[in-house]
Recover the amino acids of this structure.
């Protein structure tokens, strides 16, 4: 009887701790998501407005955006945060080094004739001392961005898009996808790169430049 009572107390205590954990970290996520969404709203206030926003679970906030100009239709912004309210999922996300991201996706006023997916990778080394050892006879060069492509044909739509991606502002994008299937354009940025309204405006500016470059190449 005593063992059963202690077990029941332990179960109730664990349930209370889990509920308290969920409440606290869900609130933290909601505050963080709301702050990022305010940055986006301020950044696009002169050309678009957020018409609807809702949470998809405790770690994903999605907002629909209506642009005054053409180019973008059925646009939406999705803020993906770490699943902090769920302890096991949060630990797994930390183990796999998942990132918090902001994704913009929309249809364009034309259907792209290309399938393009760009992913950014950076290779870094912190062992410069070993590279500089005379005995190794290393020849180290520091090139600019390098484009590795699986396409055998460099279509006319690609130069303005690639040029924008290789610009200073485009370096912060994690991946970009163009395609004839909806949504026509999807662009994702690391949330750490989106620190204020100015960074949010820069992100939306890059997306606009990508759409404009692809549109210009069709003319």
């Amino acid at each position: 009887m005593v063992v059963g009572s202690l077990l029941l107390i332990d179960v109730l205590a664990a349930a209370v701790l889990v509920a308290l954990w969920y409440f606290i970290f869900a609130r933290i996520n909601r505050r963080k998501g709301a702050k990022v969404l305010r940055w986006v709203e301020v950044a696009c206030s002169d050309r678009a407005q957020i018409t609807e926003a809702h949470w998809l679970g405790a770690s994903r906030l999605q907002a629909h955006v209506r642009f005054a100009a053409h180019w973008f239709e059925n646009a939406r912004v999705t803020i993906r945060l770490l699943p902090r309210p769920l302890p096991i999922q949060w630990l797994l996300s930390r183990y796999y080094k998942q990132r918090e991201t902001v994704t913009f996706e929309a249809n364009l006023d034309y259907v792209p004739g290309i399938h393009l997916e760009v992913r950014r990778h950076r290779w870094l080394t912190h062992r410069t001392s070993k590279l500089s050892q005379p005995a190794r006879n290393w020849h180290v060069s520091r090139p600019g961005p390098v484009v590795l492509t699986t396409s055998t044909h460099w279509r006319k739509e690609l130069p303005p898009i690639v040029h924008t991606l290789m610009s200073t502002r485009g370096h912060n994008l994690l991946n970009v996808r163009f395609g004839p299937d909806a949504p026509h354009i999807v662009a994702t940025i690391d949330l750490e790169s989106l620190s204020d309204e100015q960074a949010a405006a820069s992100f939306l500016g890059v997306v606009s430049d990508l759409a404009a470059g692809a549109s210009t190449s069709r003319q």
About this structure: The helical segments are 2-43, 87-95, 128-131, 158-165, 197-217. The mean pLDDT is 82. DSSP finds five helices and seven strands in the chain.
